[in-house]
Amino acid sequence: MATTTTQTDTLVSVDVGTSGARATAYDTAGTMLLEVRRPYLTDTPRDGWAEQDATSWRSASLSALGVLVRQLGPRHIIHAIGLTGQCPSVVPVDGHGEPLRPGLIYRDNRAVAEAQSLNETFGAEALHALTGHVPAAFHVAAKILWIRAHEPDVFRATRLFLQPTEFIALTLSGEAVTDWSMAAASALLDLRERAWAPELVEAVGLELEQLPVPHPSWSIVGQLRPSLVRRFGLAGTVPIVAGAGDSIACAIGAGVTSPGPVSEMAGSSTCLNTVVSEPLADLAVTHYPSAVGPEGYVTEVGINTAGEAVDWLASLLYGGRSGRLRPADFELLDREAGAVAPGSDGLIFVPVLGDGERDDPTLRGAAIGLSVRHDRKSLARAALEGVAYAIRAHVEGLGKASTPATEMRVSGRPASLRTWNHIKADVLGIPVARVPGDATTSGVAMLAGLGVGIYPDAESAIAVACRPEPAIEPDLANHDRYEAIYDHYRAIVASTTLHAGASSAPVEEQRSQRRSGERA
Questions:
Q1: Could you tell me which residues come within 8 angstroms of residue 14 by beta carbon, excluding any fewer than 6 positions away?
Q2: CA 420 to chain centre
Q3: Is residue 302 part of a domain?
Q4: Does residue 458 form part of some domain?
Q5: pTM for this one?
Q6: Is 459 among the domain residues?
Q7: Model confidence over 128-167: pLDDT tens digits?
């Protein structure tokens, strides 16, 4: 008797994250089918520097994607591959698509002087109105200027400047392409025109041909190379969809496509995104074109080392002799933090462990009020609270400039820590809903489905594939307790003691390499 094999319509995302690359498969109902991860390292050779080997972006992405396709097998029909990743990070490549130096990732803060030069030349207000950003060392524009000033031979040899997702788009399809949101992260895109701003491109010393071509996030931008079709054992080629920057994709996966709710992409860093109809005038708020339509914008503020600060503490206190963290270690940290009363017995933690923050390269982290009465439980609680205070400061800023937050939707590995979600609700005073799975990769899968016509529009995709858990309501008594502590936290962050400046002296004896936590 003949048997029939049921085929599954499948959408794949490739995420070039901070700690590694991953390929994730979803069915068209938004159910995760399989995920394959491949790690790589972040190198921190000097104070304020953070680099990654771009060939690792490529090898890790191809390895993860290849294993995913083989494990899925022929009964899964892959309709499209969507792309996402960390940003703004950048690597210069030659005419063969090979990196000319390590990539400078988003939390690399060496280009402070270059960012200041851009702002002095054009004016911060004018640049914000044009691009939605005030250039900082965080942005690609400043990083390119640093390479131009300090590595002129590399600059002259560069054929393309690419962010990690753009580098993988070139690897997979042979096309130098990007999406609107990733392009906006460079601080070189005309936000309203959705095209490169010629005057800014010229200011950093480039020709337009040295940047990838921007497309809407749902666009098919190429086809999987024939050599990769053969390598992965596919029956035919697969469309490549532009996708979006990781936090922008996360907002889609969390169902944040209208004003009110805030999306938190909780990973190595935390990105907070809301939706607005028009860009805001507040210079502290960055903007991206909508990833789900030709109109509208997504705001963003964020923290460079949120989950990474907790990873660091966990590796010191919960990882055992091996120092290798397991899910059970984070569950223990979360339980122990839950046994400590709000306020951590007077201990306040400032979670700035990446040699500066994206909006303040001179800021450093701290543990204030430390005493012999504190144990690891107190430190764990203080770390979780410190990130929540930093999130509150940003959410309040967004609320003052636009619609006040009605709810926060949290996605990513740290979102599974229930005590942390309760702390966030209590500190912010608004409901916090966890989005199961990973909203970044599911958001990219939705964009891939939009690109090939599986979903007619974003609302239809979200209705099918986005399933937040019931929200955690804030404990108003705890919220009241946190008010004074939060004010103290804000005063500490503003103090000159934590703004000693970033040294550029090289690390002696050895280059410090360490694994970063997952960004998304």
A1: 21, 22, 23, 61, 64, 65, 81, 82, 83, 84, 168, 172
A2: 19
A3: no
A4: no
A5: 0.87
A6: no
A7: 999 999 999 999 999 999 999 999 999 999 999 999 999 9
